Amino acid sequence: MTELQLGLIGLGTAAVVGVFAYNKWQERRHRKLAEKVLKPHHADVLLGGGQPAAAGRSEPEWPVGKATVGLAETERVDPILIEPVLTTPTSEFTPTAQPTSHSLRNEAPLRESAPNDEADDPPAGPVPAELLDPRLEFVVTMELVEPVSVGQILHSQHDVLQRLSKPVHWVGFNERSREWERLRADSEQPVRRLRIGLQLVNRQGPVSEADLVLFTGAMQVLADELMAVADMPPSRVLDQAAEVDRFCAAVDLEIGLNLVSSGLPFPGTKIRALAEAAGMALNVDGAFTRYDDAGRPQFSLQNYEATPFSADTLRNLTTHGLTFILDVPRVDHGERVFMQMTELARRFADTLHGTLVDDNRQPLSDSQLEHIRREFIGKPQATMASFGLPAGSSQARRLFS
Fold it and tell me: Which of 225, 248, 271 is the last residue of a domain?
């Protein structure tokens, strides 16, 4: 053989070996790929055999017995308190021994039920005007550190306040009923919220500067004794009192209907019988008074002469006249009450044989009575209502006292 022939034979043999080796490599490569794709990664739950593949897994492996809701124990993040959608502030919560991710919802009530000064000591709210009205009273506010009995509070400055020419009104907050109420001298109820009001005006006139100085000094002493701070209103008190007094002078009226005898005097026993039949009661002031269903005075009946009525004197008393009186600013629905009083006076006149007369002892006509009702009762009471001080209200009864 020539050298060329030998070279060609060698090249052909190498080519055959190369093709065979390439085919073997390709076959081996495809077999491995098929095994990787077709081989399962998870154990068959139904058969119970097999183990999960070790490779290609990204999920963490959880310890046996640990809950699988949440983070792995080695990567635990402390729960963050969040506001729950619904909470019950007054409910109590007992945390579990092994908190899971659900404990985020349960820990929120702990935050709600934690001690809170505002929740334990809610505001008392304003004092109702029927108890104390800043327009009519100089009101001092006191918040005590510890509750003190009402008796001790009222006794503290009693002797000093007795020298005042105007009434002092004491109001405290009842922690049980959650309401403001007047303080009574015989009460031992402890209070911590206290309001004291010096009345600025009554029928004797406005408060004086001397009264104001005396009152404020007594309040400072009381605050020191109770370990409280006395909060007082601005100093324009005397001007305010003068304004209220001018208003009172314009509406402070009493309407009187006089019933005089036409001949024989009226016997006391008959007067008493007629008054009690009309629902009137004899008071210590020497007059019979008629009250409404709420116990408020409507009008009164007194002796036209100087002798006051009493249970003893009425047995032997005789008089030539009686006077029915309506206190305009202190009576609710004054026009209606005036008509009731007029009707009762007429019945007395018929029974006792008397005559209704004015202050000049001239007989009263129906037109005169209508004029009195409209001009001297209706208009003043309308003025009071426009001032925000209705006739017959608690404030009016304090002011016109």
Answer: 248
In angstroms, the CA 7 to CA 5 distance is 5
Distance separating alpha carbons of residues 248 and 255, to the nearest angstrom:
16
Question: 207 with 309, same domain?
Answer: no
- Measured between alpha carbons, how far is 227 from 310 in angstroms, rounded to an integer? 50
> CA 170 to CA 198: how far, in whole Å?
9
Alpha-carbon gap, residue 279 to 302, rounded angstroms: 15
Q: Where is the domain boundary, 248, 265, 281?
A: 248
State how far the Cα of 311 lies from the Cα of 19, in Å rounded to an integer. Answer: 146
Domain tally, the chain: 2
Backbone angles phi, psi at 49, to 5 degrees: -105, 180
Sheet holding 228-231, edge to edge: 179-182, 168-174, 190-199, 137-149, 228-231
For residue 363, being part of any structural domain is answered with yes
Per the DSSP assignment, residues forming a β-bridge with 228 are: 144
Q: Which domain holds residue 320?
A: 253-399
34: exposed, middle or buried (Cβ count in 10 Å: 0-12, 13-18, 19+): exposed
Return the closest-CA partner of residue 135 out of 383, 381, 395, 394: 395
DSSP 269: H
Q: Nearest-CA neighbor of 378 among 323, 325, 331, 324?
A: 331
**Digits of tens for pLDDT over the chain (401 positions)?**
666 666 667 766 766 666 666 666 666 665 654 454 445 544 444 444 444 444 444 444 444 333 333 333 444 444 443 343 434 333 333 333 343 333 333 333 333 344 444 445 677 889 999 999 999 999 999 999 999 999 999 999 999 999 999 999 999 999 999 999 999 988 878 999 999 999 999 999 999 999 999 999 999 999 999 999 889 987 789 999 999 999 999 999 999 999 999 889 999 999 999 999 999 999 999 999 999 999 999 999 999 999 999 999 999 999 999 999 999 999 999 999 999 999 999 999 999 999 999 888 899 999 999 999 999 999 999 999 999 999 999 999 999 99
- The answer on 296 and 222 residing in a single domain is no
pTM of the model: 0.67
